[in-house]
Amino acid sequence: MIVHHGFDMSPREFESKKAWPIGGGSKDWKGEYASQSPLNAMYVTHEGGGAEGTLGYLALPGSHAEQFYAEATPYWNRPRQTFDLRNTRASLYLKAITPIETNPVCHPHLFIDDYCKENNTYCGWFVTEPLRVGTQWTFNQIDLLNDEKIWTRYSQDRSLDAVLSNVGFIGVMYFRESNHRYLNARGILGIDELKYNIPLNP
Question: Which tens digits make up the pLDDT trace of 20-74?
């Protein structure tokens, strides 16, 4: 089953899909999308139109942001889901709605993350080759090969195989080497038509 995230919904509908902590002192979260920073400043807009002639897209604004990422969160959605994405493909369109600047210079990458309930930890990896962002919608296709030589781990210490077989979070994040903090990101990044779990050989 190919998972497809388009953003042609109304801005109000999208607001209801953002992930937020569940009340009552729980560390759990619920929702379909998340971003940083600040938490969930992303929004859906129809201004200018999306990729492939679609109506809307996801806009990720940075205003001296410490972290700069947006993700789909199937693990936090209901019902909870994780995906075995080993040796599958992902694709998405990116666009610099306004120029993206970071200090020091950083680049966007496709990243994945899992959640380990036993010790309440997350482990993340990103594809080492950066994604391409243009002033027009730019198509990116990424083969999620189960090969640590083409990935970089940025948190915890679980193997790529363990994380890629249990993906609960996937999206676009800016990194400087393996660091995703203290980026001072400015500008607005557009994200559209995110697809994953695409067979390599349909």
Answer: 998 765 678 999 999 999 999 999 999 999 999 999 999 999 999 999 999 999 9
What are the residues whose beta carbons fall under 8 Å from the beta carbon of 149, sequence distance 6 or more?
A: none
Number of domains in the chain: 1
- HSE-up of 189 (CA within 13 Å, CB side)? 33
Q: How many CA atoms lie within 13 A of 163 on its CB side?
A: 28
Q: Can you tell me the distance from the alpha carbon of 166 to that of 160, in angstroms, rounded to the nearest whole number?
A: 10
In contact, 122 and 114? CB cutoff 8 Å: yes
Q: Which domain does 87 fall in, by range?
A: 3-199
* CATH number of domain containing 78: 2.60.120.260
